[in-house]
Design brief:
Length: 253
């Protein structure tokens, strides 16, 4: 009975080993077919096969990476980056990581996300520093990032400029208000000095001139002079009447 149990255990172990070997030796026949479609530029069919391969062998990097390439070739860059990210999750070698990061950088460049593109190319170079194409793309991404800073940074700069403009405007308004205030004070001082001067003249007893420029006192003196002349003329007339001589009313020729 004891020997039977030993034989049964050995048989079960043999079966399990056989099943494990069967799964381990199962080949991914779909991946080569997908690669053929990709080479023939049948990117839609290639994508379909890569998806099947990736679902059955999710721990393999090649199917995820190639899936990203097939999607990228269909101008679906934003969708391709998820496949590249999945490839990076399972990547084990520096070569695999280099390729996935490089293509991920290309995706970000298409999206004009230069910050992420710089980081992706930098990580690609860490895994393969000798790649000239990656180095060129890295330099280009840094140049584009410098010329096109992130929107948040631009908004901060614009806000700072607006604040500086507002501050300058407020300072200028304060200066203008102060200038106007000083001018008003100066004008008030002039008016006050003028009023004081006019008041001083009144206090000294000097008469104000009437329209025409003749003072009342001068007008009075002139009237008195006229009256005096009239009296003189009247006296002469009266004297002539007494003498009996006629008064000449016209000049001699």
């Amino acid at each position: 009975m004891k020997n039977i149990k030993i034989y049964m255990s050995a048989f079960v172990l043999f079966l399990l080993m056989g099943v494990g070997t069967s799964y381990a030796q199962e080949k991914d026949n779909i991946l080569p077919e997908a690669n053929k479609e990709y080479t023939a530029k049948n990117y839609v069919d290639a994508e379909a096969n890569y998806r099947v391969s990736n679902s059955k062998f999710s721990n393999k990097t090649n199917s995820a990476y190639n899936l990203g390439n097939a999607i990228y070739r269909q101008n679906q860059a934003s969708e391709a980056k998820f496949a590249y990210a999945n490839a990076l999750r399972t990547a084990k070698t520096a070569t695999q990581k280099h390729k996935a990061f490089h293509n991920l950088g290309n995706v970000f460049m298409k999206e004009k996300n230069y910050t992420e593109a710089v980081e992706a190319y930098k990580n690609a170079l860490r895994n393969k520093p000798s790649d000239d194409e990656t180095r060129y793309n890295y330099a280009l991404a840094k140049k584009m990032l410098k010329e096109n800073p992130p929107k948040d940074d631009k908004d901060k700069k614009d806000d700072k400029k607006d604040k500086d403009k507002d501050k300058d405007k407020k300072d200028q308004d304060k200066k203008d208000d102060k200038k106007d205030g000083d001018k008003d004070k100066k004008d008030d001082k002039k008016d006050g000095d003028k009023d004081k001067k006019d008041g001083k003249n009144d206090n000294n007893g000097e008469p104000k001139q009437e329209p025409g420029g003749m003072s009342p006192q001068r007008l009075k003196n002139l009237l008195n002079a006229v009256n005096n002349e009239e009296k003189k003329v009247q006296n002469k007339v009266n004297a002539n009447k007494v003498k009996g001589k006629p008064v000449k009313t016209e000049k001699d020729w």
